[in-house]
């Protein structure tokens, strides 16, 4: 019986370790789509839209396109710039990435 309890205790610990390794998830801070990486006449803020799709996931990939918020700058090359954090409490890691229109942007906390 004691051996079964030790085994069960070890399995619970192993599960916590595995789960703990996977708890680092994305939290979007800011996402701007347009000609420049700041808000202006030729860009739009897609933070809330991207947060709804990516927050809480360990990784997320999206094709950058006008589907994000329409075309804020017709006939100009646009990009998506994303700032996000991974982790919780004492182990938060801030990251930033960008990708041009018609390319994939990859966010990862792994």
Order of adjacent strands in the largest pleated sheet: 2-1-4-5
| Number of discrete helical segments | 2
Question: What order do the helices and strands follow?
Answer: HEEHEEEE
The structural class is alpha+beta
Low-confidence stretches: 1-22
| Fraction in helix | 25-40%
The general outline is elongated
The radius of gyration computed from the alpha-carbon positions, rounded to a whole number of angstroms, is 19 Å
Q: What is the end-to-end distance?
A: 39 Å
User: How much of the polypeptide forms β-strand, as a percent range?
Assistant: 25-35%
What's the main sheet like? Answer: 4 strands, antiparallel
Q: What is the topology?
A:
Elements: H1 2-21, E1 26-34, E2 43-45, H2 47-54, E3 59-63, E4 79-86, E5 93-100, E6 104-108
Antiparallel strand pairs: 1-2, 1-4, 3-6, 4-5
Q: What does this 3D model show about the protein?
A:
- This protein is an alpha+beta fold and 110 residues long.
- The protein contains 2 helices and 6 strands.
- Strands 2-1-4-5 form a 4-stranded antiparallel sheet.
- It is elongated.
- The chain starts with a helix and ends with a strand.
Overview in brief:
With 110 residues, this protein is an alpha+beta fold. 25% of the residues lie in helices and 35% in strands. A four-stranded antiparallel beta sheet has the order 2-1-4-5. It has a two-stranded antiparallel sheet with strand order 3-6.
């Amino acid at each position: 019986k004691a051996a079964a309890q030790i085994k069960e205790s070890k399995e619970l610990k192993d599960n916590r370790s595995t789960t703990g390794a996977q708890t680092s998830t994305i939290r979007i801070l800011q996402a701007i789509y347009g000609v420049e990486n700041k808000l202006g006449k030729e860009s739009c803020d897609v933070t809330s839209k991207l947060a709804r799709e990516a927050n809480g996931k360990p990784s997320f990939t999206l094709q950058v396109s006008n589907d994000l918020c329409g075309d804020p700058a017709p006939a100009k090359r646009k990009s998506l710039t994303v700032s996000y954090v991974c982790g919780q409490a004492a182990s938060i890691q801030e990251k930033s990435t960008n990708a041009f229109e018609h390319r994939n942007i990859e966010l990862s906390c792994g």
